[in-house]
Each structure stands twice: as C-alpha cells, then as structure tokens.
From TrEMBL:
Keywords: FAD, Flavoprotein, Signal. One of its GO terms (molecular function) is oxidoreductase activity, acting on CH-OH group of donors. This is Alcohol oxidase. Gene3D superfamilies: FAD/NAD(P)-binding domain, Glucose Oxidase, domain 3. FAD binds at V112, N120, Q121, M122, V123, V259. The active site is at H531 (proton donor), H573 (proton acceptor). InterPro entries: FAD/NAD-bd_sf, GMC_OxRdtase, GMC_OxRdtase_N, GMC_OxRtase_C. Belongs to the GMC oxidoreductase family. Residues 1-18 form the signal peptide. Residues 301-315 form the Glucose-methanol-choline oxidoreductase N-terminal domain. The lineage of its organism: Eukaryota, Fungi, Dikarya, Basidiomycota, Agaricomycotina. The keyword Signal applies. Its cofactor is FAD.
Length: 593
C-alpha cells in the first residue's frame, strides 16, 4: 500500500507515462486490450489492479467521472456530507417512493475515480458468515461460502493505527485481519459519548452485547467502527488498488468517458460475443468503438450496469421492444431485484456543549478544524460516520416474522435485522440542523429488507438517467423492522450511563409513541443508506441474469463485477462485500486464462 505521498507521485508519474487519459485518445483507440473494465469503483479498481499483476495482460479501465479523487472534499472524512449532489456524484434521484409518502429521494453514486468509495461514509464491514453462505446456496457454488471466501476476505483489508495512535486494545481483534490492500482504522478522535456507548454494552448487555470485532463473520452487538480511513484521510479504490497498479505499462485508465453500450462482435456456440464497447463523452459528441480480446467487465454499479445492459439489448425483451431497442438476449431479471437499506435519524437533546453540532454551524470552528486536519489529519474532520456501530436482531425473531406472515428475511443468526449508529450530533436527511442546541442521535437502518425495487430505462439516450425505484419501505415487514429498531434506540438510552446526558427526545420523534404514530414518523422521515445492490444478480434459473462465475447468461465475453451481482443485500455496509466479490472475480478470470 502506498502512503499519500507515494500515491501522488505514482499518479503524477503515470500522467507522464500517459497511463491516465482525460478522454479517448488516439493512443487508447488504437491499442489492443485483453480486458475492458467499465467503472473505477470498488469492483473495477480491484479488477484492473489484479488482472494487471500479470504483465502480459493488457487492461483498459474506463471511468465516466473525473480523476480528481484526491479533492479536498473527498480526502477529508468530515466533509463527506458535501459530496452528494456535487461534481463527484451522478446526481440521481429516485422515482416517488410510496413507502416514503411518495417522496423521491436523492440517490448518491460516485462519479470519479474510486466510484462510490470516494463518496460513501467510509464504514468497512465484511458482511456475515450467513450472508455469504446464503450466496453459496442460491448460486449453487460453494466458492461463495464464507469459509471458502476467507482468502479473498483477508486480501482486502489491513488494520492500521488510528491517526491519534491511541492504544486500540479491546477495539478490534488483530487475529482476523491480515495484510490486505485497503488500510482501515478505528476512530482517531475521541468523542464524549464513546465511553457511554461502551458502558451501555455492560449495563444492558443482554439487549446490546459488546462485539469485539464485527468483521469476524458475526456482526451481532455493538463494537468499534472500522473505517476506510488512513492517517486521517479517506481511502478509496483509487488510493489503494489503483495506486498499486497505475505505473504498470499494461494498464491504461480513461476518465470523463461513458460506455454507452456493450456491442456484439460475433457469435460463438450460438451465443452473441459481447467483447465490444461504444464510448462517448457527451450525448452529441463522437462515439468511438473498442474491442477486448478476452472480456468486457461491467463494474459500473447497481444502477449503471443494468442501464448499460438494457441499452445494449440485454434485458426484458418486452421492455426493450417498447422503447425501440432490439432485444439481443432476453434476460427479464436485468434491472430487477433492487435492494437497499433504509435510513432514519432519531435525535435527543443532549446535556452537553461538546458535540459536533457547532462544527456544522460555525464557519470559524470549521476553518480551525480544517487547518488542524491539513497539518496531520487529526481533529474532528478525520472522523467517519460514527465511532461505534451496532447490529441487532428483533426479539423472538421466529415469532415476530411468523406474526407478519413471512419467513425471517435475514440470512441467519449472525446477520442483523437492523443497525444502530450512535453519534453526538443532530442527524436527519429530512429536517435541517436546528439553529441552536446540542444533540445525540441514533441512526436506525433496516439491513435485512424484504422490499424489492428495480431500475428501468427512461429513454434510449445513454446520457439520460434510468428510472430508479428502490421501493424503500415498500413492505409492511420493513416498516415493522424499523419500528423495532426505533424502540431499541429508545431502550439504548435508558442505560444508567445516559441518565445525566440525555435531556429529551427532539422534535416529532418525541410525539411518536404508539405503533401507528411510529409508522407515520418513520414514513415521513426515512431515506436511503445509499446501498443499492442486486440488479444483475448471480444465481440459478431465469430470475438471475448471472451465473455463479459472474458471466452474463446467454452471452460470451461479458461479466459483471460490482454490487449489482449480489443476490441478497449483506446485513452490513456494502463496500467491503464489493471488494470481496471482486477479489474472487479476479481469481476466477485469471484462472480461466
């Protein structure tokens, strides 16, 4: 892993070597590549890096966004809230969501080298044993089981010292972390609430147990958050995987360029061979064609990958025909099965002035914090989303879900139904920060949802956004899970450690006491955690567009390596599982050469 100084040097040297192109140059258009990788997020970064470890394998990585992955707002963890609806975001908006009282919501996706690893909240979680074992079961491929994925899991992350170099004993389990590519760390700036959160795991241990390391394969309980932060700086797939590969002469990276479709270049064994791509920089600009000798790998994410496939004639034949697109491969499940986690901020008035609220209100404090961060990455701007996370299951899960007429939607006992994220600031995606006051919040999230949405075409113009319907809270089961999550958040602050800290519930949250009132509150204030997955899922049968090797069924030379390939959403944050899936995908591709 290169440190920041080495990374800057690597990319500056790469520019001299012309490995990084700001558009489709003549050099790129006239060169032969074995693989064309579309999208430079977690999946694409891994694929470009791992495939070019073989010096005889030539790879072109195409990114729709720019190359400014070290922009200050990206590098500073505490500035992550500035990234949605910025130049680094695709700026998608969902369709009106019936489960959210017909509100559309913003749907941030990374539009820069690093993809959504440059835009997210930097939480690193691997997922659970049961999550991956369910993948293995649904695909019929035991290679996706937790046990068999361990070499790829260990290849991704490595624990590093937090920026303040405090003693981390008891904050994670060193035995389950190896020397992976992506540096991660626990918090490096102490918060007043940290000791209270950990005290709660002792005072209310039965409901809120302590978990030394949620990346063990069992997430249940509260523990210290592991973030993709190193020396106080955000870590992305660009600053980790691509930094290792960018000086290799067998890798070219092109930015500011969209793949508008994949193209059939012939037939093999009666199937179309999709080893061609069309690229453009604008809707009215020139369109160029490129071919890969071996494969095109789509790593454009859960929204753009199905979008590109459908524009290419791969999808539901009826939907494509209705828009005037000739179907090439009829795969009705392309764009279906969209799953996401649901977000809700719940806030209390805190008996403290030592919260992060003033940092978001006071420009002088913010400037002082930025000056400190620029010196050595320390201070509050080096923090991720929260210092501790909790993953929990509803009480008496079997009876709870039986009463709702469904099976338990989680993958198993190691997988949570909901998540709790405590932080010492006001948190809401629907209500602005109050002009005064200090707050404690617990974000609650549905992490084993039952609702399914979809991505469909809005037009045949590849520069038009697709229609995005994550169907947030589209199931009464998901509302019931969120209701239990809010009740658990209220129970959390009844621990004795909070008695002198919590003053009262804040705003409309305080008025939601009955189940019916809670449902009204939940639907009015929920949003997305920004974890769309599953739209080109691997599995068996016609409901899965990919086989267990991530190859698009009915085609030759076309593979998908991103979170759209997940058959089920992990009961954790999604960047870690995307890295892990891509590590195995790279192994599968290299083994087939």
């Amino acid at each position: 892993m290169l440190h920041k100084t080495g990374l800057v040097l690597a990319f500056s040297v790469a520019s001299v070597l012309a490995a990084l192109h700001q558009g489709p140059t003549a050099e790129v258009l006239n060169k032969d590549y074995d693989f064309v990788v579309v999208g430079a997020g977690a999946g694409g970064g891994v694929m470009a890096s791992r495939l070019t470890e073989d010096p005889l394998t030539r790879v072109l990585l195409i990114e729709a966004g720019g190359s400014d992955f070290e922009n200050l707002n990206i590098s500073v963890p505490g500035r992550s809230s500035t990234l949605p609806m910025s130049a680094f975001d695709w700026n998608f908006t969902t369709m009106a969501q019936p489960g959210l009282n017909n509100r559309p919501v913003g749907y941030p996706r990374g539009f820069v080298l690093g993809g959504s690893t440059a835009l997210n909240q930097m939480v690193f979680s691997r997922g659970t044993k049961d999550d991956y074992d369910r993948w293995a079961n649904v695909t019929g491929d035991d290679g996706w089981s937790f046990k068999n994925l361990l070499p790829f899991i260990f290849a991704v992350d490595r624990m590093t010292a937090p920026v303040d170099h405090h003693n981390t004993t008891g904050q994670f389990n060193p035995a389950i972390h190896k020397n992976g590519v992506v540096p991660i760390s626990v918090e490096g700036f102490p918060l007043e609430i940290n000791s209270r959160v950990i005290d709660t795991t002792r005072e209310l241990a039965e409901q809120f147990p302590f978990n030394l390391d949620y990346n063990s394969g069992n997430t249940i309980g509260f523990g210290w958050t592991q973030n993709t932060i190193h020396d106080g700086h955000r870590v992305t797939s660009a600053s980790s995987y691509l930094a290792q590969a960018i000086n290799r002469p067998n890798l070219d990276v092109v930015v500011n360029t969209r793949v508008t479709k994949v193209v059939s270049v012939g037939r093999e064994q009666g199937k179309p061979v999709f080893r061609g791509v069309e690229i453009a920089q604008s809707a009215d600009g020139p369109v160029h064609s490129l071919k890969a000798k071996k494969e095109v790998i789509l790593s454009a994410g859960s929204l753009k990958t199905p979008h590109i496939l459908m524009l290419s004639g791969i999808g539901d034949a009826a939907h494509l025909t209705a828009l005037g697109i000739k179907p090439v491969v009829n795969l009705p499940a392309v764009g279906q099965n969209l799953q996401d986690h649901v977000f809700l901020g719940n806030s209390w008035v805190a008996n403290s002035t030592n919260t992060l609220d003033d940092l978001h209100r006071n420009s002088t404090l913010a400037a002082e914090a930025l000056a400190l961060w620029k010196i050595n990455g320390t201070g509050p701007l080096g923090l991720g989303a929260a210092s501790q996370f909790g993953w929990l299951r509803v009480p008496n899960a079997t009876g709870f879900f039986r009463s709702l007429g469904v099976e338990d939607p989680s993958a198993g006992e190691t997988s949570a139904h909901f998540e709790q994220i405590p932080t010492n600031a006001f948190v809401s995606k629907t209500v602005p920060l109050p002009a005064e006051g200090h707050f404690f919040s617990i974000i609650t999230a549905v992490v084993s949802p039952t609702a399914r949405g979809n991505v469909t075409l809005n037009s045949t113009n590849p520069f038009d956004a697709p229609l995005i319907n994550p169907n947030l809270l589209g199931s009464p089961v998901d509302v019931a899970i969120m209701r239990e999550a809010v009740k658990a958040a209220r129970a959390f602050v009844t621990a004795p450690t909070w008695s002198d800290y919590i003053v009262s519930e804040f705003g409309v949250f305080a008025n939601a006491t009955t189940d019916d009132e809670l449902e009204v509150y939940i639907r009015k204030n929920s949003d997305t955690v920004d974890h769309p997955v599953g739209t080109v899922a691997m599995g068996q049968g016609t409901n899965a567009p990919l086989d267990s090797q991530l190859r698009v069924k009915g085609t030759v030379g076309l593979r998908v390596v991103d979170a759209s390939a997940f058959p089920f959403i992990p009961s954790g944050h999604t960047q870690g599982p995307t890295y892990i899936l891509a590590e195995r995908a790279a192994h599968l591709v290299r083994s087939s050469l």
